[in-house]
């Protein structure tokens, strides 16, 4: 299964992935219209201490701890993609605490959580962060051979 | 309008050749009939023939055939003969017999000389007899305005002019000559009336070439071969092809097969699959003589003392048919030209792209400059 | 910054589009952009902008553009603003003006006045999609006497050649002047393409020895990074006598760029300036060159062809003739529009001659002397497209060098600030955070794409001419016609005017 892999070696810390992610999850239209003057809530985050930077997003674990901890049964794995059902999510944030990677985040409204779902709902299954990374530091591929 | 030498004139053509392996002498009649069938491949602006074995009485001498443009350059003959006398014994000289026919007009003065280099001159030049003779011929063509050596081998001769080839053949009374090998050419030049010297065959020593096609590598070939004391004064494909063959075969000592492998080199993909030792040899030739690769459409018949070689381009962009019947070998642009003179021919075929077909006399004593080594 | 000099560029930000993602700010090594937390908007300091387009390219909403300032001096045809500003800069600094890349001056580009031929009626164009179209070449001396073995078989007695799948090479750019990742991109691409790249005078990084068969190792006047293994590592050794952008001038890589791997590869102490003298101090004349050529041949056991690279200067034909007789296997001629990592502006813009004229006269001269086959000729110095490449081959080049074109493929936007070492594209810099911006995986891919595209175009043009092997295009000047040229220019180029 294709997953998102990040390669710290090539991450420039430009944070563009966050904007492309946020925009994709808002429908993938005109970014200026969608994001102008509002804070972005991406599902991928660049960890950046000024020296080292890399993007963090859900790894779609085989045995996701977030799902195990979910009290509402809102997290499921469909075809290898760890998904969240917003209708079921009660916003208890257990998943946020249990994810060892910090890849689950509160949604903009704070009532539910959100996480990377590989753009299956948005950009036709081609994750916007990988597609737009200018240095191929985020790749969407099988097995992460080149990670 | 500019003539050959002042401008480059591409042309389409018909070619034909007849060869007797036993050395039987044939009149020029057959080859005229053969080329005449392909009348529509010429446009009346050039025709010519080469015959081998036609001067048995003067076989030891170089037969220089010359055009003099007497109207434009009245002194040409005088200057040329003075030059010839300075460099050669002239054993015999005279007008080449022609027949006045309405189809052929405006002919230049046409002479022939049977010559041998003056030993002291040749010795001073430090050149062998052939090279000395060839250089003298090239020098006349380059330096004496209005004089043009259009044939200069031993026991052979080129006959050419403006007109359809069958008319040119009758004009030169070729039925009166006997040769074991004949080639013929009908020309379809594309822009100017051309002039007599620009008709084909083109010859250097006993090597003659008739050629059909227009090579795209012309200037690459020309600029390279001119490094080696050749001057492409006519700017025709045939001229440069003749010089290339002369250079590779006579000067560099390549066999005719090796020469063919240079000018019509197989593609790299073919070369790499060849069995050894051919593979190494051919790759070497391709690397060593890459400037003499000829591209674009051509088919040629190379005439030389004791043989002929038929060769086409590496993509087979020009038709060429060859055939065997008894001791005779035939070659022509179209099969009809062979059938016209040998209706029941035993075997005809089209050689592969770049595949040389070489025929030589059964008797091995003939060993001209172009003969296989 | 000079008080007198007004910034040349203005950063124009479309506020309606800007989402303040700050990518521009993070990507600008010149610190042009800044986020103002009070207004929540981005701001720009135009005076620092070098117009490298890094921000413009990465801006996700295409909110940025850079424009030339319309600020002006009182119009003066004799004193254009550029001249005035240069006077101000020199009055301020007292220094020689420095520039990078090729000259931007409007010198005549003869390539643009040369047109190509195609077949019509009398011979057929060849369709490269249906028929083989060969571009393979071998560079090196071809004039050996033929030899046969006892069986009469021809013996391959050619001296070592450089095999290339097409007559193109990446020309010399040293590790130091360009980054590790730029070198990695060039090396990988050259190997994938079956061509060569050139180390320049910076030695060969240990990581790139596996690409040796696709590497030309350079020996220049500073001898940086030269040792036995280095000479043996490449497909050929190039002696750099001159560079088109700066004939008669050496090189100077400042000490701050000589760190870590660069120092190690150059075999000099970190922090020391790497100064390449203007001449080779063991070559003060042509006979000295011959000694170096043969020294290198001896050092490589006669296994490597020797290239001698010269800048196109006024008497280049005579020089090339001397080089051809020096034992060199290949002559590389670098035209004056060629690029550089840094050169004095006046030298770059005013010294040397265009490659078209130099190449044509060298090729003609070597033929006149009957020694054209003793050497291969590589032409470089602003081959900008396959059209220039094709025209150079038809003028007589065995192959062409490209460098600026290759850098453009890697992202270079020709801002010509290489000498500052702050290349935002990770090419002409040694700053690790900038170097990593050039991912060689992408770089190599883009180079391969570019060269393949050019090769396709070469094949299309050759096919149109009815030529199916590139050696029949070489020196085939009948395939060229000139427009808008004087008879003298045509004569030097050895071509006819269009229409005749």
Features:
heterotrimer; B: 373 residues; alpha+beta; seven-stranded antiparallel sheet; five-stranded antiparallel sheet; C: alpha/beta; Alpha-Beta Plaits; TIM Barrel; eight-stranded parallel sheet; three-stranded mixed sheet; 29% helix; 15% strand; globular
How does this structure look, described?
The complex is a heterotrimer of chains A (147), B (373) and C (500). Chain A folds into 2 domains: 1-57 and 126-141, Alpha-Beta Plaits; 60-115, Alpha-Beta Plaits (2-Layer Sandwich). Chain A is 20% helix and 22% strand. Chain A contains 5 helices and 8 strands, in the order E-H-H-E-E-H-E-E-H-E-E-H-E. A two-stranded antiparallel ribbon of chain A has the order 1-8. A two-stranded antiparallel ribbon of chain A has the order 2-3. In chain A, strands 4-5 form a two-stranded antiparallel ribbon. The longest helix of chain A has 10 residues, at 16-25. Chain B has 373 residues and is of the alpha+beta class. Helices cover 27% and strands 28% of the residues of chain B. Chain B is built from 11 helices and 18 strands. In chain B, strands 8-3-10-1-16-15-17 form a 7-stranded antiparallel sheet. A 5-stranded antiparallel sheet of chain B has the order 11-12-13-14-18, with helices on one face. Chain B has a 4-stranded antiparallel sheet with strand order 5-6-4-7. In chain B, helix 1 (29-36) packs antiparallel against helix 5 (165-171). Chain C is an alpha/beta fold and 500 residues long. Chain C folds into 2 domains: 9-95, Alpha-Beta Plaits (2-Layer Sandwich); 137-497, TIM Barrel (Alpha-Beta Barrel), CATH 3.20.20. Chain C has helices spanning 23-27, 54-58, 81-93, 180-193, 228-233, 260-266, 286-299, 316-324, 345-350, 355-368, 386-395, 404-409, 432-435, 440-465, 487-493; strands at 9-13, 33-36, 41-44, 64-68, 98-99, 114-116, 137-139, 162-164, 168-170, 197-198, 215-219, 236-240, 251-253, 274-276, 306-311, 330-334, 343-344, 376-380, 399-402, 480-482, 496-497. In chain C, the strands form 7 sheets. Chain C has an 8-stranded parallel sheet with strand order 9-19-18-16-15-12-11-10. Chain C has a 3-stranded mixed sheet with strand order 6-20-21, with helices on one face. In chain C, strands 1-4 form a two-stranded antiparallel ribbon. The model of chain C has no long low-confidence stretch (mean pLDDT 96). At the B-C interface, helix 6 and helix 10 of B face loops of C.
